[in-house]
Amino acid sequence: MEIIPRIGVTNLRFGMTVDQVLEVAGLPDADYIDADDGDRYLCYNRLGVALRFNEEGERRLEWIVVANPEATVFGRKAIGTRFSEIEALLDTELHDTKACDDSGYHRYTIWEETWIEVQHTLGWVQQINLGVTFNSDDEPLWPGE
Fold first, then answer.
1. Cα–Cα distances in angstroms (integers) from residue 70 to residues 18, 49, 76, in the given order
2. Which pLDDT tens digit goes with each residue over 66-85?
3. CA-CA distance, 47 to 66, in Å (whole number)?
4. Closest C-alpha among 4, 109, 24 to residue 66
5. Contact yes or no for 3/13 (Cβ under 8 A)
6. pLDDT of 83-131, one tens digit each?
7. Fewer Cβ within 10 Å of end Cβ, the chain: N or C?
8. Do residues 14 and 61 lie in contact, with contact meaning Cβ atoms separated by under 8 Å?
9. Would you say 71 and 9 are in contact if contact means Cβ atoms under 8 Å apart?
């Protein structure tokens, strides 16, 4: 599974509808609507991903959580890797500003313009989350559109 910034992961691309994802990935292990914000989530244990679809319109894929230990980013293994290695790689490849939540042993580092969040615990990458990016009018920049 390849994490592709601004695009998605492998064959799961930002902007896909729920029906398109179901056609590609099959039935999820969990499918629910968040009571607080109305977003829909499909969770695939075998793939190690959770997918969030916006509540408006066609329910398009806008956020991906990746916990798959085989996932790669820019060709390098990501999950279970030292954070310092992934940080250096993303800094080099993304040329993006970043912010870090320095709240103890479990931290979040976000490359803000590319919208990639790396969750790391005690210096090891636990999961990578990525989202669709937005233009200056706060409209999603769906890949291929």
1. 24, 12, 10
2. 999 999 999 999 999 999 99
3. 9
4. 4
5. no
6. 999 999 999 999 999 999 877 888 999 999 999 999 999 999 999 999 9
7. C
8. yes
9. yes
